[in-house]
Amino acid sequence: VLGFLSVTLFFLLSFGREAEVSASQEAYEDVQWTSDSNSHPPWLRFHLNISRWQLYLHRDPNMEPLTQQLATHRIVSAVQKSGGTQLKLVMSFPNYGQAMLKPMKQERDEETNYNLYYFSDFERHNAEIAAFHLDRILGYRRVPPVAGRLVDVVKEIKDITTDRKLARTFFTSPVGNVCFYGQCSYYCSTEHAVCGRPRHLEASLAVMLPDLSLASRRTWRSPWRRSYSRSKLAKWETEPDYCSTVKKTPPYDKGTRLVDFMDMVILDFLMGNMDRHHYETFEKFGNNTFLLHLDNGRAFGRHSKDEPSILAPLEQCCRIRRSTWLRLRLLSLPQYRLSDVMRASLFSDPLHRVAPLLSEPHLASDCCSRNYQQSVQVSLLINLKERLCNLISIWQS
Amino acid sequence: VLGFLSVTLFFLLSFGREAEVSASQEAYEDVQWTSDSNSHPPWLRFHLNISRWQLYLHRDPNMEPLTQQLATHRIVSAVQKSGGTQLKLVMSFPNYGQAMLKPMKQERDEETNYNLYYFSDFERHNAEIAAFHLDRILGYRRVPPVAGRLVDVVKEIKDITTDRKLARTFFTSPVGNVCFYGQCSYYCSTEHAVCGRPRHLEASLAVMLPDLSLASRRTWRSPWRRSYSRSKLAKWETEPDYCSTVKKTPPYDKGTRLVDFMDMVILDFLMGNMDRHHYETFEKFGNNTFLLHLDNGRAFGRHSKDEPSILAPLEQCCRIRRSTWLRLRLLSLPQYRLSDVMRASLFSDPLHRVAPLLSEPHLASDCCSRNYQQSVQVSLLINLKERLCNLISIWQS
């Protein structure tokens, strides 16, 4: 377990997060936590149980109360998360738990404009939720828990925020909906305002990881990062032997990092995420630890087209972790079809009552018949690709 | 007729427009114009025939060649029109004619986001085209002729432009379409790029009016201008007796200005244009002249909802020009249903071959059954409103 901090230390340090805690102290509960984990709120239990191998346990009894609180707990503070390119809010709960809110910006059945580059795409609240479920189904448990929630933008954001820059951007739309747009570098303008109906807004709430002052993280640039340019290609797109260089480069030359990376690639392929430019690990665990699968808002943008290039690392390195491979095989069996398992899993999210979190075309799109035949090039991979394809077609058909 | 300039003077002065003429001189034809109007290109004939009463004649034989040239003539220059809020290009033809190009930005059947204020709406190329037809059908002839055209963004813009700022914004989209976004204050960014398929782009081309140095224009602020604020109301929205003030204010106190204004209001209502903050007249004709109906790109944004507030001037002043009234009555007869006349008229536009210029919901939306009953307040107007409503329902059902 993360366990490099005692509860007391943790508690004391938690109050160092004042920058993003803005409500008056009365809004918060009195804290009566002891070393007994039964006295801890779910978010603290979650933090203390993060291990070198995963964020939470298989069948973790803490998951249900944790996501329940994300979805229902009273919100005592809402401020903008600084530094992001798109609008995000940090929400605080009376028990000092915090969550990152991403608002709904696009209708669920809208597809990302095919002329947009991946780096200009909207972030989607339902992608954050669905990514958490998919990551868990794949057996990774590397996405921090996320729950959907219908937020009252007046009561739960506008009325309680102490963030003046945010408050200033609220307005009532011509049809009487309450809208806001915040301040950020992309899409924070009146044309891209986020609007309640009339004040209820769908959002994803992701539990915050331990503060960086308590559990520092290391950021790694993905070796298969895209160029983030409309005209340049990345090295991996032009060098046929790119993987052999990566395999010799630390930390990919030792331990499990390369197969950890492939795990992430499979997740990204299945959800169509092209935006994995970096990933993070907990500093304390060194190189021998899992990769955090953070920031999945640009996944699930298109159901009518897959992006085979996301699988390039797998294709080029021809490596996959055995347990992942077995999991994919399991999910290819008729009784565990990935699309069915996903549908069932998403059913448990509170927002499911409002509308299905992934539209059926997303669950039902058949990637195999489209792109696979063409992109199978390396003979060794054909088998794997065809099987993966099989699995994928099962998840998506 | 406009006739305050001789052809020679006109021709000489035309070359003063160098700022927006950028192609090399060889691209242009040798000019052999005389005082005989048969020697003039259609655009010059159009300019010279502008009168105090209208832009062109009823059954004007020059209209067909003029719109034909807009739609098919070789483009020798394309530069950005400076000063606008949204992307517009000035296109030049070998015979020194010029046109204002507005590109297609929205799919035809998309409706403007109902949370957007009118002043944040996109401009629509098909609205410019449809407005020209509707204005002509209403018998006004106050919109400069517009034709649709499928433009090759590579050959007809990128390859020939001398506008470096424009050229710099071209790129190829992920699916291989050629896109550009230009420089302007709204929607000129990579997320809002205008894209060919793969290089053919629908656009509207409106013939340019005589240069301001030849025929200066006066700009009038609309007395029923909206507030252009998300929170403030305009005077006309709160003062019940607003019209009586306007009626006493020059130029609305004399001549035909008030009924000219009502003509514009009826046009704007029928096409759902809330963005008529100003209008223009030709200076030379003083106050006793028609109003130019320029800039109609924000019309036809919604077919599922009418905006009765556009009719406020009519409601408040209870005035309408007799010929307009008779025209509306004519267009209410089964054999001249406005929707049918519009459909037939739009059929003649070259872009009609690509796709209908107004989607059927636009032609078929039934405004009457929706908003009219509620907004009928002034008893004197009930009759008029009901009849107008009748007409409108005919045009829209």
Automatic annotation (TrEMBL), chains A, B:
<dbReference type="Pfam" id="PF06702">
    <property type="entry name" value="Fam20C"/>
</dbReference>
<dbReference type="GO" id="GO:0005794">
    <property type="term" value="C:Golgi apparatus"/>
</dbReference>
<keyword id="KW-0067">ATP-binding</keyword>
<keyword id="KW-1015">Disulfide bond</keyword>
<dbReference type="GO" id="GO:0046872">
    <property type="term" value="F:metal ion binding"/>
</dbReference>
<protein>
    <recommendedName>
        <fullName>FAM20 C-terminal domain-containing protein</fullName>
    </recommendedName>
</protein>
<feature type="binding site">
    <location>
        <position position="295"/>
    </location>
    <ligand>
        <name>Mn(2+)</name>
    </ligand>
</feature>
<keyword id="KW-0464">Manganese</keyword>
<keyword id="KW-0479">Metal-binding</keyword>
<dbReference type="InterPro" id="IPR009581">
    <property type="entry name" value="FAM20_C"/>
</dbReference>
<feature type="binding site">
    <location>
        <position position="123"/>
    </location>
    <ligand>
        <name>ATP</name>
    </ligand>
</feature>
<feature type="binding site">
    <location>
        <position position="280"/>
    </location>
    <ligand>
        <name>ATP</name>
    </ligand>
</feature>
<feature type="signal peptide">
    <location>
        <begin position="1"/>
        <end position="23"/>
    </location>
</feature>
<dbReference type="GO" id="GO:0070166">
    <property type="term" value="P:enamel mineralization"/>
</dbReference>
<feature type="domain" description="FAM20 C-terminal">
    <location>
        <begin position="170"/>
        <end position="364"/>
    </location>
</feature>
<feature type="active site">
    <location>
        <position position="275"/>
    </location>
</feature>
<dbReference type="InterPro" id="IPR024869">
    <property type="entry name" value="FAM20"/>
</dbReference>
<comment type="similarity">
    <text>Belongs to the FAM20 family.</text>
</comment>
<feature type="binding site">
    <location>
        <position position="102"/>
    </location>
    <ligand>
        <name>ATP</name>
    </ligand>
</feature>
<keyword id="KW-0325">Glycoprotein</keyword>
<keyword id="KW-0732">Signal</keyword>
<keyword id="KW-0547">Nucleotide-binding</keyword>
<feature type="binding site">
    <location>
        <position position="123"/>
    </location>
    <ligand>
        <name>Mn(2+)</name>
    </ligand>
</feature>
<feature type="binding site">
    <location>
        <position position="86"/>
    </location>
    <ligand>
        <name>ATP</name>
    </ligand>
</feature>
<dbReference type="GO" id="GO:0005524">
    <property type="term" value="F:ATP binding"/>
</dbReference>
<feature type="binding site">
    <location>
        <position position="295"/>
    </location>
    <ligand>
        <name>ATP</name>
    </ligand>
</feature>
<dbReference type="GO" id="GO:0016773">
    <property type="term" value="F:phosphotransferase activity, alcohol group as acceptor"/>
</dbReference>
<keyword id="KW-0333">Golgi apparatus</keyword>
<feature type="binding site">
    <location>
        <begin position="206"/>
        <end position="209"/>
    </location>
    <ligand>
        <name>ATP</name>
    </ligand>
</feature>
